[in-house]
Amino acid sequence: MFTEIDTASLDEPVADGPLAKTWHAKERVRGRPVNEANGSCNTKTEWVEHVTRIRDAQDQAAFAELFQYFAPRIKAFLMKSGSDAAMSEECAQEVMATLWHKAHLFDPSRATVATWVFTIARNKRIDVLRKQRRPEPEDLGWGPEAEPEQLDVISLQQETAQLRNALSALPQAQRELIEKAYFGDLSHREIASQTGLPLGTIKSRIRLALDRLRHAMN
Amino acid sequence: MSNKIKHHLTDDLLMAYAAGGLPEAFDLMVATHLSLCDHCRARAESFEAVGGCVLQDQDDSVSLSDGSLAATMALIANGAPIAKPARPGCSVLPAPLQDYVGGDVNAIQWRAIGMGVKQAILPTTREATARLLFIPAGAAVPDHSHNGMELTMVLQGAFSDEVDHFARGDVEIADEDLHHTPTADISEDCICLAVTDAPLKFNKLMPRLFQPFLRI
Ligand SMILES: [Zn+2]
Q1: What is the pTM of this model?
Q2: How far, in Å, is the centroid of ligand 1 from the Cα of B40?
Q3: What is the ipTM metric for this complex?
Q4: Which of B58, B93, B97, B129 is the best residue to mutate to test the A interface, defined by the most A CB atoms within 10 Å of its own CB?
Q5: CB contact, 8 Å: B96 with chain A?
Q6: Smallest Cβ distance to A97: which of B52, B72, B85?
Q7: pLDDT per residue over A49-101, tens digit each?
Q8: What torsion, rounded to 10 degrees, do the Cα atoms B34, B29, B90, B82 define?
Q9: CATH tag for B102-214 (out of 3.40.50.880, 1.20.1200.10, 2.60.120.10, 3.90.226.10)
Q10: Distances (CA, A) of B25 to A134, B30, B212
């Protein structure tokens, strides 16, 4: 069953959760980097390495792979949000350029690269289509003095992959409503019935990462 | 800090914030609360993970124009790394609010609305209104009800009403049916962020006279 977001599930054990054994590498084929033949670790931290290479070495080859995977998806996403093809492509390019310029701000213990790219694309949509500012929470990022634990990064990436599987297993009507919300087509009042998403584990994982980050900041 | 917060945002507000479907004033409320509350921040970020999944499952056969990557590399070459936003540290107003006020509490442009209560309307799109409220220690905001939804979050001091007691970071979510009279604690002046998606209706004669001047 799905775990609803609530205070009680914050206390669930997360490190050795039942999700670990239902992880299947074969589910990842569609999203795998194109020329990533070696290193099984990369299948679990899909794309994180690419962003690190951009951050540390301005690696254009890594960027080209990210671009090839994400730019068409961003364009398709923005077109479903009501933007025309030309505008969507222009925005997709700007989103990808922002990814490059923000590579040093990405925290892989709290988000996958896909989640992070989604937030950049969402903000672009709010800016361009809705023409409004997007207030963001006070920034909490890892500084040069400390980086997230690799185990946290891998766990978060795995749990997001599980979430993706769970979403695709939802009944079609429910999945379409959720997609509609993310295309910006539902108001918050219409979203009210869309809780009950399987988010308990991933929420606990992010909470843990936030606690570690707060600790490292002090 | 955040572990003392008792009154949190709802799932539908957090999901709408993550999805990017809220009016700007509500975005400002959510971003301000998340700055103080790691519990809701984790919930909001898990809703963003849903967005990441939706993005990944988009049709990847949408074609890009020739030279799209080259155009993006040109954008990159003409841009510059985006600096980490400054964290104001120990202040009354969290960073997203400071962006709208232009500073901390001392920068707020208050306007008196009667009986010692002051407000400052923040510049957002018109679908909804965000304002800061100043309630003197021990004073009450006139009894009012709502056409729409009203969220009130405490930034300094505390208030009580017919529902509960609210302190820094706590959010009261009031709908059409709630008639309430928030009263500030006697110990300190209370500052709140209040967001509504419809005009307030005041229930007492005096406050009703003020309403035309409130711009809400
Ligand atoms: Zn909260």
Answers
A1: 0.85
A2: 4
A3: 0.89
A4: B58
A5: yes
A6: B72
A7: 999 999 999 999 999 999 999 999 999 999 999 899 999 999 999 999 999 99
A8: 70
A9: 2.60.120.10
A10: 10, 9, 21
